[in-house]
Structure formats: C-alpha cells, structure tokens
Write a structure and sequence with these properties.
Blueprint lengths: L14 H8 L3 H15 L5 E2 H8 L10 H15 L6 E2 L1 H11 L5 H12 L1 H5 L4 E3 H15 L6 H8 L6 E3 H10 L7
Antiparallel strand pairs: 1-2, 3-4
Keywords: Calcium
GO molecular function, one term: calcium ion binding
Protein name: EF-hand domain-containing protein
Amino acid sequence: MGARSSRLKYHEWDSDKLAQTSGLSRDEIDRLHIDFMKAAGSDGVLDMQEFIRFYTHLPGIEMQDTHNINQQARRIFRAFDRDNTNTLSFDEFLNVIVLINQTMPRYDRVEYLIRQNNIDKLKKNKGLISAEYGHQILRRLNDYYGSSAGKEHFYWKEIDTQNRGYVTEEEFMNYISNHADFNRK
C-alpha cells in the first residue's frame, strides 16, 4: 500500500500464505502470473482497459453482469493503483486476488494484506501501523468499497484516539472489522 519500489515483490511473498489467502494453489498463482504478463505486454503492467479485459476473464467473474463487472473493475483498479501510475503491477494485482477471494473470511484477507504491505513493519515498527500507512489503507478501502473520499482522516481519528501517530494492528483490524463502511462484500 506504499510506492512500488518500497514493497515486497511477488517472488518475495510467502507463497504458502499467498495461496491460502488467495484461494489459489501455487501452480495457479504461477499460471496467473504468466497470463498477467502476456496481457500486460512489454511494459509488464496493466492499464485500466487491459485490467478490465483481464479481470473479466478471472474464474467466477464472468458469471456476473457485464455492466457491474466493468464498474467493479474500475473501482478495484483505482483502489489498488497505490502509486497512482494508472497501471497495476503484478504485485498490486495480487492484492486484488486476495481481497476478492470469498472462500476466506474478509478479516483474514485484509489482515494479511495489511501485514504483507506494511513496510514500517519490515523496517522497525513490528505490529504497529503508522498514521501514514493507516491513512493509505483507509483510502484504499474507501476506494474499494466505494465510500466517500477523504473519510480516512475521520476514521484515523476514531482509531488513534490517543493521538499517538500509530496504532497496533489489532486496534486497526478491530476498527475495520466493526465499521459498517468496511463490512460489505
């Protein structure tokens, strides 16, 4: 949920945990990577239109209404284009795959993504979410769930009631899992 250069790359992810949270086997993830790279072309990333075409061919997605798929794909693209390049890398796309997996509880999927993308945790603040990272997560969740833009500041104040500039992962996840704005499929 930070800039591309500061996140773990696909080959650095815990492949067993990724398989568990995505609902895909390691082989299916490898195949998805190959298909993604074919769809992405020489630049290795998907723009919005490439993403929509790729997204609509994911297993289970093609059974949805075309109009809803396109709207959903656009919303998801904006939510996971974390560095605002108007493209998605495969690493960003993996976040999409995890979040749309309905075979695992939403709490577990969101918690995994938060931990996976928490560069502060990798550096020094194990188990803590900084205000900056918390705002990024909340902004992405707003985008994903279609909530009002800019509410991340309000949410953060409700989570960090002591104004410490950080919260524990547990405090953060408890807030998200109990807030109506984030409890929709």
